[in-house]
Amino acid sequence: MPRSADTPVDRASEESGGFSLSRDGDRLVWIIGSSRSGSTWLMRMLGGLDEVAAIDDPHIGHHLSVWRPISLAWATGEEIPELTTLPAQRRDRPSYFFSDRYRSSWEPALRELISARFEAEARDVAADRGAEGPVVVVKDPGASGVAELISRLFPRSLLVFLLRDGRDVIDSWLDGYSAGSWGLAEGAYPLTPEGRRSFIRWQASVWLQRTESCQRAMASHAPDRRLLIRYEDLHRNPVSTLRAICRTSGLRPGAFKLRRIANRFSYARVPSDEKGSGHAVRWAAPGSWKHHMSRDEANAMLEIIGPKLAELGYLDDPVAEVS
Questions:
Q1: What's the pTM?
Q2: Which of 9-23, 112-126, 177-191 has the lowest mean pLDDT?
Q3: In what order do the strands lie in the sheet with 135-139?
Q4: What is the CA radius of gyration of the chain?
Q5: Which residue of 242, 265, 270, 317 is surrounded by the most CB atoms within 10 Å?
Q6: How many Cβ atoms sit within 10 Å of the Cβ of residue 265?
Q7: What does the alpha-carbon distance between residue 128 and residue 122 come to, in Å, rounded to a whole number?
Q8: HEC string for 113-160
């Protein structure tokens, strides 16, 4: 049945001057990849542009993709399980809500729901800045697990896959699950010394699953609407990364403006008592994992992600690393 002219989605579009993400998907940018990869930093820099409405962690992926098995399996199972998601397990069952059989019914509705929600927030940001039809940048690492679905729903959106060395990602999560850390306010807890190894194996499996999901989505997405950004390159030259994203998303800020934004959000500008161990803004330089893991812990991590790290060019010989 055709949508009525006075549906909430259409009324929202009228209020925003005809701006509609469900129609104008090329004004939507997704920052995907593993959490603790610098995505908040990148989002904040892009959000420093007047023409951008930045949306921070809507957790779409966590709602659409539940892990299977539960994380407890990495501490109690006889062997390391393969991490997957509920949709991947149930997609071929007709009565599963997001089943493949009824995709033509739920995908368009889901696209409209996501679009309407983002448009509402984008209108607030645009009103504050006097901008019309902003580029909407969504930072949602959790959406990496459903990156292929995101690509289908918004085929003309820009996918920015922010890739970081999984060893640094896992090291950062270890810090987040320590006494007094920022993570405790968001549901984390201090790990026991005995629990660190199982936690490392779990986080390694999460990094691997999200990385491979993003790789599949990028492979099928339109070549002119996808960007692979390595954290290490972003750290080395943030202005160059910002310029590439802006150019691909249709933004044309000057070089001086980009340098000013990069300087404003640089690690050096963060007060010393708001960064480092225990803080959400931790260590900017790559390679800090080497100082915070035992050899046994590093081997447990590399057993899971070593081959993928080698494929991505982060290490030369994963077999030698875990021997």
A1: 0.90
A2: 9-23
A3: 52-56, 135-139, 28-32, 158-163, 226-230
A4: 20
A5: 242
A6: 19
A7: 10
A8: HHHHHHHHHHHHHHHHHCCCCCEEEEECHHHHHHHHHHHHHCCCCEEE
Would you say 119 and 19 are in contact if contact means Cβ atoms under 8 Å apart?
yes
The closest alpha carbon to 146, from 75, 49, 223, 212, belongs to 212
User: Which amino acid belongs to residue 227?
Assistant: L
**Contact at 8 Å (CB) between 156 and 224?**
no
The pair of three-digit structure tokens given for residue 310, joined into one six-digit string: 């080698």
Length of the chain: 323
- What the chain holds in terms of domains, given with CATH numbers, is 8-322 (3.40.50.300)
How far from the centroid of its chain's Cα atoms is residue 48's Cα? 19
Instruction: With beta carbons less than 8 A apart as the criterion, state whether 110 and 154 touch.
Output: no
Contacts of 105 (CB under 8 A, 6+ apart): none
Tell me which amino acid residue 47 is.
Answer: G
How far apart are the C-alpha atoms of 108 and 282, rounded to whole Å?
40
Tokens describing residue 36: 């603790």
- Reference 86, options 95, 100, 73, 96; nearest CA is 96
Q: Bridge partners of 206?
A: none
What pLDDT score does 220 carry? 97
What pLDDT, in 10s, does the model give residues 55-89?
999 999 999 989 999 999 999 999 999 999 999 99
Structure tokens at 19: 């701006």
